[in-house]
Write a structure and sequence with these properties.
homodimer, 394 residues, alpha+beta, Creatine Amidinohydrolase, Chain A, domain 1, Creatine Amidinohydrolase, 2 domains, five-stranded antiparallel beta sheet, Creatin/AminoP/Spt16_N (chains A, B), aminopeptidase activity (chains A, B), Peptidase_M24B (chains A, B), aminopeptidase (chains A, B)
Chain lengths: 394, 394
């Protein structure tokens, strides 16, 4: 495996060209993307367009249909953007200042004045805007936008941009493959370290250490090492100081972020022998994952893949433990669209990347997930890891 | 050092009582706190009131002046809240659902219906609300609140609640002390691992591994291992694959989160001998930190502490490199109010906890910070670490 694959600068520029082409086709003047450091969803568009990961302060990316893009941010991030992305046009706006802070040497402007200047420099009207990340935009910023453009001129184009993001390039596939490589090494380190008396957090430490040394930037979703009925019961878990005991079910969910992209693996492990109910659930979940994998190929409508997995779980009487639709894409967000729900009618396409996550939670014995990654090729779903879903008893 | 100090459940309940008392004193009917998984600011109020750290989905905490509190969240978090906090009243609302997802077995309500039910059960009007986390509230949620309460009835009480949070209890001091203990061990592990040819990310791996094994949950601000002029130049940095070279300035910023609280240490290290300019900057920053520490005692107006540090830096001709006001409180946010700016007139009080961060950035030679933590006692500022700010040459 080549060490440290990256997305080349040209590809980021190409993505911006695609956004500009979309604006022109849809008679929009400006693209606005909001991004922040929310752990799962926050950085997506800043990373996708400029390889920039906001931290501490949010940002807005403005791409006019004609002319140079600009990133708007707070007073502590302008040099951070210059140092870590290829953007050479950053402006600090008052809307992203930290209340109670004082910046004696910062040049601070406002969204309104940036748009005014853009209108002047480009010598054209900028009134119709397409927005992504809308759901996350804080209300004060949204109101400032509304005052400038008029709410009727602000169009949510998330769905169309998600479609652009859904088909991965060769570079993206290479980066995601490496993220899964890291995830697998992390998972293996976690499994090796499971022993009676070890705490969940110590096991997470081993997984994260292994991944960090291989180049992981952090996590797309917090590392889950959950053990016993109480801690494995919910879909999400906080990794605690609880010590693993004999007979415990230990649920591992490992999702490193690498160059802004993700790998995600979920695996339950038993210290000892599983109860009959746990063994049956594991067997059904593995079978469901295989069924979804077999269905996951170009041309298959998304809901058919969902059905393939659910059918197996229904036969095993486990359907009510499937708490969310878990066959989802993986990219600059660990859990991104398209999500293959029973309502998803579009077809799976070549070079999409899916996580087939089979979740069984809120059961009397706790919960588990088998989660693995697949690259959709013309020949079907290609696994992005070498580990197989299986019943592991330590 | 006692292992694993925690905030006892009674203290969380006591905090809610204080919020209720505040509501009554101010003729408010309901307290609303928004929280999410933004890396630095997101979880603050959920952690402070319910020991709950939202992840993946946001939440809103509603505390009526009389009656039981409720946490509103998305369909994947209700059992997560029950498993990790003492809250026993969680409702899933549509406003926090994930678009494109499908929850076949979830019971989902709306903010409006929750408030309607609360009015009925408590048999009283709920119209005047005090809000915190307002700055972060997504606009759709804010509009839903506005439609229910009327914008004129929504009062921002962030400032008053920050005042409540600013004075730390004995339990909080113990937890923060432990966070600094972890931070110090992490810092030392990082320093030990610095060597020619080691990458920034490998050094971060050593710091984080050490801290995770000691109980850290994650980071209050991303671990910074920045080296060389380009990477140390900005206030924030992304820890990269860059390999440390002879003569490099290496900036470490280590801020673990432990039980929702933080420690934060910043230390520059030189591999070799420092340039004259770097040595002068280091000497001035250390002197500035000592000056601020000496000024930091109960009764001193905040701006006096800021002045003490700035005066030293001005004398050294370095004032324009101080890019932000960096003497700030530490608690459930790594960088929280009060921030001792030149405009901060209130007095420092006993049992506040401050980080004295002396930042010098955007210099021709790059940037650095000396950051250490102090507990304000009646006798002055008590260091929360044993490491001293000093010029370290490896």
């Amino acid at each position: 495996m080549q060490q440290y694959p990256v997305i080349p600068k040209e590809e980021f520029i190409d993505r911006q060209q695609k956004v500009k082409a979309f604006l022109k086709e849809n008679a929009l003047d400006l693209f606005i993307a909001y991004a922040d450091d929310k752990a799962v969803y926050g950085p997506a568009y800043a990373r996708w367009l400029f390889n920039y990961a906001p931290h501490f302060e949010p940002c807005c990316i403005l791409i006019p249909a004609e002319g140079e893009a600009v990133i708007l941010t707070g007073p502590e991030s302008d040099q951070f953007i210059y140092a870590t992305s290829h953007c050479r046009n950053v402006k600090v706006i008052n809307e992203f200042s930290h209340p109670g802070e004082e910046y004696l040497f910062a040049q601070v402007t406002t969204l309104e004045s940036v748009i005014g200047q853009m209108r002047k420099e480009l010598d054209r009207d900028i009134s119709k805007v397409g927005i992504v990340g809308l759901e996350m935009i804080p209300h004060l910023l949204y109101e400032a936008m509304g005052a400038i453009f008029g709410p009727g001129n602000m169009v949510d184009i998330e769905y169309q941009m998600l479609k652009l993001r859904a088909i991965k390039s060769e570079n993206e596939i290479r980066v995601i493959e490496y993220a899964y490589f890291i995830a697998e090494k992390g998972l293996q380190a976690a499994i090796r370290s499971i022993a009676e008396g070890k705490s969940e957090r110590e096991i997470a430490a081993e997984a994260e250490y292994t991944m960090r040394r291989l180049g992981s930037e952090g996590m797309g979703i917090d590392t889950i090492v959950a053990s016993g009925v109480h801690n494995t019961y919910p879909v999400l878990a906080r990794t605690t100081h609880r010590k693993i005991g004999q007979g415990d079910l230990v649920l591992l969910t490992i999702a490193p972020r690498y160059e802004g992209y993700h790998g995600a693996l979920g695996m339950p492990v038993i210290l000892g022998k599983p109860d009959k109910a746990v063994e049956e659930a594991m067997t059904a979940a593995i079978e469901a994952q295989h069924a979804a994998k077999d269905a996951l190929r170009p041309g298959t409508p998304g809901h058919v893949v969902d059905r393939a997995a659910r059918q197996v779980l229904e036969k095993a009487g486990l359907q009510s433990h499937v708490q969310y639709s878990a066959i989802h894409s993986v990219g600059v967000i660990e859990f991104e669209a398209p999500i293959l729900t029973s309502a998803y009618r579009d077809e799976v396409q070549e070079n999409m990347v899916f996580s087939i996550d089979i979740p069984l939670f809120s059961a009397p014995w706790g919960g588990l997930r088998f989660e693995n990654g697949f690259h959709v090729t013309k020949d079907g779903a290609r696994p992005l890891q070498t580990v197989q879903p299986e019943i592991i008893c330590l």
